[in-house]
Design goal:
- The protein is of the alpha/beta class.
- It has helices spanning about 10-15, 20-25, 35-45, 60-70, 80-95, 105-120, 135-150, 165-170, 195-205, 210-225, 230-245, 265-270; strands at about 30, 50-55, 75-80, 95-100, 125-130, 155-160, 205-210, 255.
- The chain folds into two domains: about 10-100, 3-Layer(aba) Sandwich (Rossmann fold), CATH 3.40.50.1100; about 105-270, Rossmann fold (3-Layer(aba) Sandwich).
- It starts with 9 loop residues before the first helix and ends with a helix.
């Protein structure tokens, strides 16, 4: 959450865009996002001198829209996030490179650099607790960590109303939610992908689904005790640890990933 743009997403965005050919760079990049991925793509594109177009749903908070435009991206609004995902294909056909928020090996591996840094900073780590939206962050981190220290356990977390991975794991296939209703808007992928579902099946111990109320309570604890203002999509990992407490011992070294801090003060006052 202390990265430029306030979230981890710049890692995957840069990793994807740095791999583009000269022809692809000339045509520009397009993305779909309700928040953090939008800012990451816009920022990375600006730094790499690329055109960027972001499709965002109308309900996107104003601070996300302002920041995305501030990084130089063109923003086009759609009625829903699902509609934005459908419309992006038309831009791809025109030559734009689609920077998917999670269903892309380069994006996933970019997010996985967090796993490498965890092992550098906390070599004694036993457990990692990570939020799941579309599953790219969890999948990337799990792949990196398990490759170097396979005994580390990876625990996924979602919030009620945005539990696309928990639903997919229960069904044994990708499931599209009829609507995303959680306050944790940046977990709002209507469905995970076949790739991220496979990674979750292979590497995750479980996916804990917490309530919005639990995520907000955890947000205030982190603000008061750790002096950091997270999003509910990040504080939900702290809420999940309370539920998972029985799995840990005094010898455990548990890492909670606070993946984003773009929570508007207006939203905080009404939480």
């Amino acid at each position: 959450m202390l990265q430029r743009t306030g979230a981890f997403k710049v890692r995957g965005a840069f990793n994807k865009m740095l791999a583009l050919s000269e022809c692809e760079r000339d045509r520009g990049v397009v993305a779909v996002s309700g928040g953090n991925h939008a800012q990451a793509v816009a920022y990375a594109a600006r730094e790499l001198n690329l055109r960027s177009l972001i499709l965002m749903p109308e309900f996107t908070p104003g601070n996300y829209l302002e920041a995305t435009r501030g990084y130089g991206a063109e923003v086009r609004l759609t009625r829903t996030l699902a509609e934005a995902f459908r419309e992006v294909r038309a831009y791809e056909s025109e030559g734009w490179t689609y920077v998917h928020p999670f269903d892309d090996p380069l994006v996933i591996s970019g997010q996985g650099t967090i796993g490498l840094e965890i092992l550098d900073d906390v070599p004694e780590v036993t457990d990692v607790v990570v939020s799941i939206g579309g599953g790219g962050l969890a999948g990337g981190i799990a792949t990196a960590v398990k490759a170097l220290k396979p005994e580390v356990r990876i625990w996924g977390v979602e919030t009620e109303g945005a539990e696309s991975m928990a639903s997919a794991l229960a069904a044994g296939c990708v499931v599209e939610l009829p609507a995303v209703t959680s306050i944790a808007r940046t977990l709002g992928a209507p469905a995970v992908s076949e790739v991220t579902l496979a990674l979750a099946n292979e590497y995750l111990e479980s996916v804990t689904v917490v309530t919005d109320a639990e995520a907000i309570d955890a947000l205030f604890v982190l603000l008061e005790q750790a002096k950091v203002l997270t999003e509910p999509a990040a504080s939900c990992t702290f809420a999940a640890v309370e539920r998972l407490r029985a799995h840990f011992s005094k010898e455990s070294h548990v890492v909670l990933i606070l993946c984003g801090g773009n929570f508007a003060l207006d939203d905080l006052c009404h939480a």
